[in-house]
Amino acid sequence: MFLLKPTNFSYFSRKALPWLGVICFICFLVGIFLALFFSPEDYKQGEIVRIMYLHVPSAWLSLGVYGLIALLSFIFLVWNNSIASVLAHAAAPAGTVFSAICLITGSIWGKGTWGTWWVWDARLTSMLILFFLYIGYLSLWSAFDNEERAKKSAAVFAIFSAINIPIVKFSVNLWSTLHQPASILRKGGVAIEGSLLLPLITMFIFCTTFFLVVWILYALHLINLYKIKREISVRY
């Protein structure tokens, strides 16, 4: 809650931005090198398996960002914290892009391994639904002339639609699907070899820090707009 004040968020986010930018750039260079040269090709899938290093982090970020939006929306509704609403709004475009990247890279990977661009199985369908939920959330922000009504409508939508997050996560366990089960976040422990895990984690850190940089920049922009609107409403 400490950071959910405009002055505190602006101060600490501006301090963090240069460090996040450096970490993002380093992890990008290291991650690309590890993914292309350190990681071995798969004995069945061949070189196309390397798309995993973009596909999997994008999938994780898609779920994580929507969960963040739902949490911030809950804080906004319960404590009437307007900055939480602004931060939720700022996170949505990046989450939409990550979900789109996940779907596109997944289709390319599927074509190379399954022989088809798309199948209507549980994991792919629930991820497609998540993409449309992002679109729906963003659409609600521009669907109303009244800004407060738009905030509350989008917040309620985000909270209730977050039920799709565990559906995406556990879809491979609950239903029959072509998609492989979890290899890292699973009951039996990590089931992925170190030469694959290291570039995967590095690329995940890159995607996470990239999201944080974009999120902070857009949030600062929205906070400034919010301040300008408040000043105008007070004057007139």
UniProtKB/TrEMBL annotation:
Q: Where in the cell is it found?
A: Cell inner membrane; Membrane
The Cytochrome c assembly protein domain sits at: 8-179
User: For this UniProt entry, what is the primary localization, expressed as one broad class?
Assistant: membrane
Transferase keyword on record: no
From which organism does this entry originate? Candidatus Wolbachia massiliensis
Name of this chain's protein: Heme exporter protein C
InterPro entries (UniProt xref): Cyt_c_assembly, Cyt_c_biogenesis_CcmC, Cyt_c_biogenesis_CcsA/CcmC
Task: List, in alphabetical order, the GO biological process terms annotated in this UniProt record.
Answer: cytochrome complex assembly
Taxonomic superkingdom: Bacteria
**Any matching Pfam family:** Cytochrom_C_asm
The terms under GO molecular function for this entry are:
heme binding; heme transmembrane transporter activity
Give membrane topology per the record.
Answer: Multi-pass membrane protein
Looking at the keywords, is Ubl conjugation present?
no
Q: What's the family? A: Belongs to the CcmC/CycZ/HelC family.
GO CC terms: plasma membrane
Write out the transmembrane intervals.
Answer: 16-38, 58-79, 86-110, 122-144, 156-176, 196-220
| Described purpose of this protein according to its UniProt entry | Required for the export of heme to the periplasm for the biogenesis of c-type cytochromes.
Q: Which UniProt keywords apply?
A: Cell inner membrane, Cell membrane, Cytochrome c-type biogenesis, Membrane, Transmembrane, Transmembrane helix, Transport
